[in-house]
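quick one, 468 residues, struct below
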Amino acid sequence: MPRIAVVAGVLLLAAVVSGCVPDPPPPTGDTTPPVLTGDGDLALDADDPTGVVATFSVTAVDDEDGAIPVTCSPPSGSLFPVGVTAVSCTASDAAGNVGSLEFTVTVAAPPGAVTVDAGGRHSCALLDDGTVRCWGRNAAGQLGDGTTAASTSPVTVDGLVDVTAVSAGGEHSCAIAAASVWCWGDNAIGQLGDGTTLTSAVPVQVAGISTAVRVDAGLRHTCAVLADGTARCWGDNSLGQLGNGTTTSSSTPVAVTGLTNATTISVGYLHTCAVRTSGLISRVARCWGYNGYGQLGDGTTTNSTVPVAVSGLTTSFVSPSRVTTGDLHSCALLDDGSVRCWGYNGAGQLGDGTTVGSITPVSVLSLTDATRISSMYRHTCATLLSGGVRCWGESAFGELGDGTTSSSPVPVAALGVSTATEVSAGDRHSCAVTAGGGVSCWGRNVFGQLGTGSTTDSASPVAVTGIP
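---
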C-alpha cells in the first residue's frame, strides 16, 4: 500500500509539472430564465399636469433559486409624465439566465377648464370631462361638495356629470346638465329654484326646466334661457329683476314677460339683461329690474318689472352679441369687437375715461377687438382676439390684474395673460381660462377665491392649482 501511494504521488507530481489541470465540473443543466410576472399595462389619471407617481409590483421566480430580485426602469414609485412610458424589468439567476418583462404606464392629462365663472367670494370652473370644480368661500355650501368648509383650491361638485354650463353667483352656484338646471348654496329667497328656501351644500334640481341652454346666477336671483328662446327667472324679485311684471319673489322659475328669441342672459345684483335676435341678422338688448343709476340703459332711472330696450346699441351695421351686468352697471359686446357700458360709473367701470354715470350706453375707450366680456360688482373685463385681457373700473384688491390696486376708467392689461379664451369678473376678483385649459385668477383672496392654495391677495394673475 505505501508503494502505491508513492506511485500515485509521482504521477500527480508529473501531471502538475507537465502543466495539465483537471477538467471543469460538468454543467448543471440550468438554462431556464426566471419568470417575471406583474400588474400588466397601467392606465392612470393625473391630478397634476406634471404627471403622477405610479407604483407597481413585479416578481421573479427561478426554477433553482426561487424568488429573486427584480430591477425595473423606470422603477416603481417614479413620477410618470402625461403620455405613454415603457417600463422594462429584468431578473438574473445564479446560473446567469436573464428573464425580462415589459409593460406600459399610460397617464391621462388632468381635465382642463372650458369656462370659469367668478362669483361673490368663490369661483367655479367647468372642466372638459363634464365635471365642475369650485373654490373659495363656502359658508352657504356654494362650493357644492357637501360641506360648508371654505377651500383655497378646487373641490369637485358632488354628483354632477356631463355639465355644459356653470355660473357662480353671490353665495350660490348653478349648472346645466342634460338640459336641466341644478343649483346649490344659499337659498334664503328661493334662488336655487327648487320650490323651497332651504340652503343646500349639494346640487338640487330647479323645478320645471328641461330644455335649458344658458344659466346665470346673480346676487340672490337666477335666470335661464330655454331652447325655444324664452327665459325663466327665480329668487329675489324685490325690484322686478325676475321680469314677470311683479315684485313678488319666487322659489320656482317664472317666465320673463315678452322676451322671445333670447340668446344670452346676464344676472346682476338687482337687475337682469338679455340679448335677443330681431329679424334675420340683428340683435337687441333688453334689461329689467332696478334702474336707480340708469343700469337698464333706456335713458331713464325708472325701475321696470318687464324688459325694456337698451337705447342706441343696434344700428344697421352693428348689434350686441353679448351683455353683462355688474351691481349697478351693464355692458354689451358688439359684433364689431367694440364694447359699450351704462349705469353707475363711480369707479370708472363704464370705461369711457370718466367717472360720470350714464343712463344710455357709452363707448369703452381703446377696445376694438374684444371677444368676451364680463362684469360684476364695480369692474368689467374683456378678452381680446390676441388672447390678452383688459379690465377697467375698481381695483381696491387688484381685480384689474395690472399689478396695482389703482382703479382705472380706461382698460388696462392683465399682466402675463396672452392666451385667454374666457374671462369672468367677480366681486373684487377676476379669473380667465388660458390655452391648455389652465385657469388664472387675480384680486381679493380672503376666502381662497383665487384658488392658489393660499389666502394672499394678488394684483396680477396667478395660476389656480390643479387645473389642468
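The CA atoms of residues 169 and 217 lie 4 Å apart.
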